[in-house]
Amino acid sequence: MLQLLSEVGTDRTRWHTEKHFTSWLGLAGGRKQSGKRKGRVKAHRNRAGRMFCVAARALAQNVDKALGGFYRRLRGRVGGLAANVALARKLALSFYRLLR
Predict the structure, then answer these.
(1) Which residues pair with 37 in a beta bridge?
(2) DSSP 76-92
(3) For residues 81 and 91, what is the distance between their CA atoms, to the nearest angstrom?
(4) Which one of 15, 75, 85, 90 is separated from 23 by 20 to 30 angstroms, measured CA to CA?
(5) 92: which residues sit within 8 A by CB, 6+ positions away?
(6) Which sign, positive or negative, has the C-alpha torsion 4, 8, 13, 19?
(7) pLDDT tens digits, one per residue of 44-90
(8) Crossing angle of helices 47-60 and 66-78, rounded to 10°
(9) What is the spatial distance between Cα 14 and Cα 8, in angstroms, rounded to a whole number?
């Protein structure tokens, strides 16, 4: 938590909305795609975004938590990597709302 606060800081005026925050982290959806052709744009996550991904990986192994169930439901549909990013985005949104 302390490393995350040192990366993000306490100033929330840099991001107007939650969507700006998740985009800054590199966890926002909306990849470049047209039909079945996917663009070769790779999303780069900064250090804070990678911290959320690590936390999501740890929560995914929890059986008792609701977030672990969210991960397992998504993993069956879209795969493990996309489910991990979705869970990391969900954690980032709750972190943003908590500090706001």
Answers:
(1) 34
(2) HHH-HHHHHHHHHHHHH
(3) 15
(4) 75
(5) 21, 22, 25, 27, 49, 52
(6) negative
(7) 788 899 999 999 999 888 877 888 889 999 999 988 888 999 999 99
(8) 100
(9) 10
Backbone angles phi, psi at 37, to 5 degrees: -85, 125
> How far is Cα 89 from Cα 56, in angstroms, rounded to an integer?
9
Question: Which residue type occupies 10?
Answer: T
Tokens coding 89: 């985005």
Burial environment of residue 75 by CB neighbours within 10 A (0 to 12, 13 to 18, 19 or more): middle
Q: Check if the beta carbon of residue 28 is closer than 8 Å to that of residue 86.
A: no
83, two tokens: 């489910």
56: tokens are 């999501």
Token digits for 60? 């995914």
Q: What is the pTM of this model?
A: 0.82
